[in-house]
Amino acid sequence: MTESYVIETQDLTKRYRKFEAVRNLNLRVGAGRITGFLGRNGAGKSSTIKMLLGISRPSSGSGTLLGRSIDVAAQCCESRRHVAYVAEDKQAYGYMTVAEMIAFTRSFYPDWNVDMERRLLKQFDLPIHRKVRVLSKGMRTKLALLLALARRSRLLILDEPSEGLDPVSIEELLQALVRAAGEGTTVFFSSHQIAEVERVADHVCIIDRGRLVADTSLDQIRRDYRRITFGFSTDPPRVDFTGEGIGSVRADGRQVTVMATRNADAIIERGHRFGAASIDTNPVSLRELFLDLVKEESRDALV
Amino acid sequence: MTGRKQNHFGKQAEFTGQDFSLLANCTLTVIRLPGMVFTLNPSSGQPLYLQLMQQIRHAIETGVLQSGDILPGVRTLSQQLVVSPNTVVKAYSELEHEGLLELRHGSGAYISSRSAKKTRSDRFRRAQERVRGLVDKLRHDGLSEEEIQRLVEAELFYPASANRRS
Description:
Number of strands of chain B: 6
CATH topology of the largest domain in chain A: Rossmann fold
Mean pLDDT of chain B: 74
Number of helices of chain A: 10
CATH architecture of the largest domain in chain B: Orthogonal Bundle
Low-confidence stretches of chain B: 1-27, 161-166
Largest sheet of chain A: 6 strands, mixed
Structural class of chain B: alpha+beta
Radius of gyration of chain B: 19 Å
Order of helices and strands of chain B: HEEEHEHHEEHH
Oligomer: heterodimer
Strand content of chain B: 5-15%
Strand order of the largest sheet of chain A: 7-8-9-4-10-11
Strand order of the largest sheet of chain B: 1-2-3
Distance between the termini of chain A: 43 Å
């Protein structure tokens, strides 16, 4: 069975004057999953999401959202009907109360999930008679989340949903995402918070300086990625550690550390053959992988 | 429906150890069900569905979960553990494949009656006794606990590499 993708881009690029915010991005997001879109501030996450939703136009390249082209206005409108979006600034009409905002939004969607609305209203403890304008950042995020989740969309896109939230609110946010996924919604959310992506996501795409630097499942990272440290009792031999499954190699004195993306056993075997006195293998957390990739990229950029 | 054994785990589930975001990448997700605990560690180097499978299997082998007991449904458990529903789906369907769980649409995951066959838990108990015997012997030979642990781990993780080249 071929996998179906809700988001697919080909060489998607966004230039702001001379600055390339997104460079030749080939992004694919599978249906029925929770995908985390990780990157540092300014890495190109929001620029990408805005192009996907038709809010801004690509400088070059193309893409599809739910199978419809993102730069043909009519097709974009069609796909947007099935996509809920929680924007970075969580905008809503300030002069409305929470209850009015919910009733207003509800009127656009015949398939509105009243059950979800009630449950989230209660769980989030939203003050329904307060004006949106005076809500705290956390409250505004929760309202935006409620409006997005109750729509029963096929795809939910969130841009930095946890930004500015306290730990309890982040927990509630993650629960809401998991709940939406449980109801069959594909979730795509950008974040620079590694821990939350590592917990709830099935898949992670990492973007750095506008380029995609990783696209992998969390299961694969846990199962295959290993940091292997070889200790040598003499100066390390000039072992050629480059090859299949090797992400990066670092030598410190008599130690050589290899980041393996697969084939860890074969790499360990090779170390043995070259006379390593000690071999230490550790799983790679998403944080380590992220730092490794992003740092390596910055090294490349300096060259 | 065998009254006494009907533990509706899902309904009685409670949260513990919720202080996640502060612990960055060493966060643990702990769920306490009556008589059992699921602990998923996102950065332990093992897929979460495998961690969940192992813990359910272990609970069955030790008798903490018994034939007829019900595990929470996919949505409920994924929300309690705050992990992707796919994690729970994968764990449940693999366990169903192994014959330990019976998935009934809409009513949850039942511990299968086949799992109650003494063979499995007997086998487990016998193995446990053999391991205990071996560990005792190694200790008697003067090996430290740490050394024994390292030996076992080396055999488990790199059985084919280096020391056993054929």
